[in-house]
Amino acid sequence: MTETVIVRDDGFAANSATCKFSSLAELGPDSATAVEIGPSDDVAALAPHLGHISILRIAFPSFADGRGFTLARRLRAMGYTGTLRAFGHVLADQYAMARRAGFDEVEIDATLAARQPEAHWLARADWRANDYQGRLRGQAAG
Amino acid sequence: MYRYTEFDRDFVRSRVAQFRAQVERRLDGSLTEEEFKPLRLMNGLYLQLHAYMLRVAIPYGTLSADQMRQLAMIAERWDKGYGHFTTRQNIQFNWPKLAAVPDILDALADVGMHAIQTSGNTIRNVTADHFAGAAADEVADPRPVAELIRQWSTDHPEFQFLPRKFKLAVTGSPEDRAVTAAHDIGLRLVRQDGELGAQVLVGGGLGRTPMIGKVLRDFLPLPDLLPYLEAIVATYNLLGRRDNKYKARIKITVHEHGLEEIRDLVEAEFPARKALFGGIDQEMLAAITAQFAPPAFETDAEGDVTAWYHADPVFRSFVDTNTAPHRAPGYAILTVSLKAPGETPGDATAEQMRVLADLAERYGHGELRISHEQNVILPHVPCRYLKAIHDALREAGLASANVGLVSDIIACPGMDYCALATARSIPVAQQIAKRFEELKLEHEIGPLKIKISGCINACGHHHVGHIGILGLDRAGVENYQITLGGDGGPDAVIGERAGPGFAYDEITDAIERLVLAYLDLRETPQETFLQVYNRTGSAPFRTALYDRDEDSADAA
Asked: What's the CATH fold of domain B134-293?
């Protein structure tokens, strides 16, 4: 498996976690703690499992497919408090959108990380600033 | 008028800085063209037939005199000395250099403007009635709601990569001059038991599959507005088709799933969205509304306009066609036509923009509007100044007395500029306008909306033209289809195709035959083209178009 990079507000981190992600179809009564869903999955099916899940990864097959942002918002509205990760073809320019929509971090492959190095992502680590949504909802800018 | 807060200013400046960096990263290769494309589109920058095109938002069509002067400056400094006002209350600059675009965006930010979300698969510039705040027939000024929506939709993290573009329009008048039924979401402000709210239409749109919006909610209280809009767009974001761009607009989603299912999904999504809004948005709406307080109207505004009206037939004709009733006594709403016969519909030179800005400042409380019909409006004019304004407009080549008449044609840029176009539209508009100028019949014909699109995407709104013209490519030859009976008013109607299309050099004659047939058919001079069409149906008009006697056919 090729190396991936985790992007957070403080920059790049090597992806040290070796956990296996279960798909929606694989979820049984003994809930997995790491789950991955795709953009067309129905997150309502996750409702009974949310309390056990510690990390949820939402796949972005293409940066142009914005369904993952609504899925993230919906999962947070359902009360999910674990780690939420956007995974795949996410651009540095979308980092602020991902964070504002409820993601904690982004996982990209090494090729994308080479082409869009850490500095490009850190430039959007100020995602709390200049946020119309935060303002309209009465959330203070950080 | 709305003035940017410190927050708005900081936001726009930071977006310009981001775009400047994105342009640099595109030039050094760290962004591919495929990746740069949505980023430039989010900032209004298209790649057209010959050059980049920058589309600047004029939210709800409202401009100050200073903003208009800045547009003139930009046209002169970075373009070829003119700009093109579009059918969605934007202005387009057709010849900017990529490297200059960040500087243009900074110049816009200097006067509280931007080009954000004027393209791309996101919520576009919010449009509104161009007579807002002035019209005598208004329930409420739609602009505070439109400004709130501008702030909500701008940079919305969830909705920057929707299945397709998404357009909203707001009207505060039952006359619906904003054509709300032809938008992804249309809002019509209404009062119910004294409370202001909105009727919500969804799934309207023109393009290759024209549809009239359907009522999703008959009365939505304003405190529920943003969460309800959010529920609609979130539903569409997940449900809208991404496999075929021609089936990706919400009108198709509504058509395929049915209005009931969409309504159920939106209502199910609504509570979670409502929980995210704590009422701050309503405080902001109240503050915005205060900024749209009407100007201090003059008393004795009428002056000696009546004497001039009777003394000067050219002035009289101008007042008759280009003014509309204002809510304040002695005032008028003045539409300045950008449709001088032979000129490009919607184009204004930098000099004309400055003349308009000066007139607005001197005589019109400093305000201007841009209409979706591609004209400029002075919304608050004391009638005693109309004569002086008319004189100044004549000198600037802006005094065409043709608003709402046959030469007040909406036309998209067509093949002269647009990469998507399949036929020319501007020259067709010019030829038709000139023809009726020569015939001297325009004022006798009365209200008639001709709308021309140069391709099936329908930017010229031909579906809602009383006469619509659609330019297509038939095996390398331009062919113009005619639709009849369209109507963009409150009871919006999609026009019906009349029959086979016409060649480029036949279309003006065909339109002339249609209009002459109308003059024969009408029972009184007051009966408009559309009224006759609705009374007689299409048959006599088809006859005029297609049944030509053999003599004239042989002679041709």
From this structure: Sulfite Reductase Hemoprotein; domain 1 (3.30.413)
